[in-house]
């Protein structure tokens, strides 16, 4: 990707809407790396990676602040943060990982209940 992808192309790749991507930009969650001469947002591969991470956190009910904390911590570790900052980043990632696991298990239980309910309904129609 030489110049970057425009927002419409990103919506096709990620399944997120244009207003959602603009909102993420306005709150500083995922800011596009560039702008075209006409002022269009241009996203590079790293921007897309960040958007996909956020998209994966969204159904688990993480807040924008938690998403930002996660991205900041991941960036700090990837960029080789100093020892104190790296320890804090690892702690943030561990906390979010534990919360994600707990939320995942809750969702699995809800899906199981939904499947049971559908089976019950199907049984009533037989």
From TrEMBL:
One of the record's GO molecular function terms: DNA binding
Alphabetically ordered keywords of this record: DNA-binding
Residue ranges of every copy of the HTH merR-type domain listed in the record: 4-73
Highest taxon listed in the record's lineage: Bacteria
Protein name: DNA-binding transcriptional MerR regulator
Gene source species: Corynebacterium guangdongense
């Amino acid at each position: 990707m030489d110049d970057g992808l425009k927002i419409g192309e990103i919506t096709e790749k990620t399944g997120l809407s244009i207003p959602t991507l603009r909102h993420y930009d306005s709150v500083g969650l995922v800011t596009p790396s560039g702008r075209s001469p006409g002022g269009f947002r241009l996203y590079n591969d790293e921007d897309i990676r960040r958007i996909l991470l956020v998209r994966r956190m969204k159904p688990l009910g993480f807040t924008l602040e938690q998403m930002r904390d996660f991205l900041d911590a991941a960036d700090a570790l990837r960029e080789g943060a100093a020892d104190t900052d790296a320890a804090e980043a690892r702690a943030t990632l561990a906390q979010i990982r534990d919360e994600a696991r707990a939320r995942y298990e809750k969702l699995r239980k809800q899906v199981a209940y939904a499947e049971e309910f559908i089976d019950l309904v199907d049984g009533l129609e037989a």
